[in-house]
Amino acid sequence: MIFVSGMFRSGTTFFARLLNKTKEVSFASDPFFAVFKDFRNTLSRDKKHLLDPNAPLEDYYFDEEKNSFFHDLQNTPFSELNIPDLAYLKKFTEVSSQPYSELLSKRIPEIAAKTYGEFLKKGAALILETYGSKQVAGFKEVWANEFVPHIIELFGEKTKIIQIVRDPRAIAVSNFYSEGRYPLLFLGRQWRKLASLSYHYSKKYQNVLTVKYEDLIGFPEKTVRDLCTFLEIEFNPSLLDTNDIKDGNNQRWTQNSTFQEGGSEGFNQKSIHRWMEKIDPKTRKAIEFLTYPEMQLMGYSSFEFSPSENLSYEILEDEKEKLAKWILPYSEFDFPKEFEKEKSRLESLNQKIEPKVQKSFFLFGEIYEACKSLFEK
């Protein structure tokens, strides 16, 4: 099994379509997010962790109960949790996967399973049958890095995990120039959660690789060769040709880029630095303020923000009329209060704080220590 994840607007779909070109891998794009979300909702009921089942995956910062649930989720395998309503899960999965993996979506009603683990294993078998009956099945899901331990536990040590990370300023620009933007706080906290998980899992597991979007686009041949070595598959120069990539319905795929001109961009190096021309100063300061330690951890630089800078909570405020309608119920922030939380998080890197607070601010103690070591230089 090959599992790819990362934040949206990070090139995960491009990467998924590229992998499906190989002779060894049958790959699906975003087929099972409904399974992950239903698993989260079922576990939350079992653990009496109250949440809106329609809400996006949480960021788990600044809330002891949320953080505790995150660590419960990390330690609960898919195979240990029964599906409470299989008919609902099949319909949910069929509908949510249809826009991205249309052929696979039509096969979802065939699945019979008792646990979430059984459901995903049978789903993996369907990927192989649907997209070429090759040697290895794979799929990608955006936002879903927190399920890396579950995928490894379910599919075994031969599982290969690839996590894609992109500069959060580029992601913000891509989102803001498309229809239905997300709140700045949501974007910043989700990015640093996913970047932190990428760092943590890359250290914890030998079969996990973190790839930066900027490397994939800027140095395509070297990056794709390295990926093939990691996946133990043969490199073929055709992988660098993006003109014959197929979508989830086996039709020619056009790349989903906010700024594309005339179809698929392929390995367009302009996409790496385009955000610098498009980002407004307020958005840049907000994103850098929210993600500064983790951006350094992932090797990003060129900051306009300085930790010693005297900012106002107003940098976090959104233009509500431009937000996506579905996210409005999850966009009611007390900005002065959230701003103070974020200030305390940054200030903690110059202090000695208890392990429980480290997890609240950085998810894992090791992330806090790694960020602290960079912060002090």
UniProtKB/TrEMBL annotation:
<keyword id="KW-0808">Transferase</keyword>
<dbReference type="InterPro" id="IPR027417">
    <property type="entry name" value="P-loop_NTPase"/>
</dbReference>
<protein>
    <submittedName>
        <fullName>Sulfotransferase</fullName>
    </submittedName>
</protein>
<dbReference type="InterPro" id="IPR026634">
    <property type="entry name" value="TPST-like"/>
</dbReference>
<dbReference type="Pfam" id="PF13469">
    <property type="entry name" value="Sulfotransfer_3"/>
</dbReference>
